[in-house]
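Project standup — Tuesday

K.O.: blocked on the structure for the chain from last sprint. Re-posting the sequence here as requested.
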Amino acid sequence: MKRVSFAEFGGPDVLQLIDAEEPHAGPGQLRIAVRAAGVNPVDWRIREGQVLGAHPVELPSGVGLDAAGVVDEVGEGVDGVEVGDRVFGEGSSTYAEFAVVSAWARMPEGLTFEEAAGYPSVVETALRVIREVGVRPGQTLLVSGASGGVGSAVLQIARDRGITVIGTAGAANQDYLRSLGAVATTYGEGWVERVRRLGQVDAALDLAGSGVIRELVELTGDPRKVISIADLGAPELGVRFSGVAGSVPDALAEAVDLISRGKLHIPVEKSYPLAEAAAAHVDSQAGHTRGRRVIVV
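H.V.: unblocked you, prediction finished:
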């Protein structure tokens, strides 16, 4: 089978499309014929060799955590799913023709494989950081870097929970943020004052790692009211870096509920074939994403 792999840490050019042995489902796992794989910032952070304790790496390594596809093999002890079922979930080395997933859910009706591949890690992260930052219904949450996958999920989940969201993004994504229910403003010079004019901020999330931790603490008045998923230096300023996933099965169940109720939709901005995984990483690292990027198999 074809799989994207890297044998050394480095830039996008270390990614290679290789012939690899097919993986097999162990106890409590499924193997899927991958139709699409989500492209997440954690993918290129791992490829660069950044120290992420939740994702230890042995070289050579595959790439990718999220995928959607058709069940091809059912591991021992797995009930309620059969070969041929359409599922989306999280596993390992998902930029491949076949991958093993350890957390999954049946795809909601009407969702394409490309769309489904963009949800697992994104929704788990969004649910986790909303919980960890402690924002409650009736309060206001500031989201820095709100137009990407996690931001898109945070805005919609917060809105469903009665939380007001102020989102920052580039000028081209202001209407997109508003379409998701956010009060939108641009980043760049003067952004702190623009946010202040929009009202009190009770909690804040840094989703882009653009060097705004000090300002987020200033706006909330307390580093404990700020969470970052993108700035590894955040703890130096008393801000929690959230990088360890909670329950992915629970997150997938909530994603299915939200999608089925029409409360969550994350658009796919661009799709790439397996052979163009390096280009997907380049674009992901450049930011300015509206929704999700996915690998199509």
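K.O.: great, moving the ticket to review. DSSP finds nine helices and 15 strands in the chain. The longest strand covers residues 30-39.
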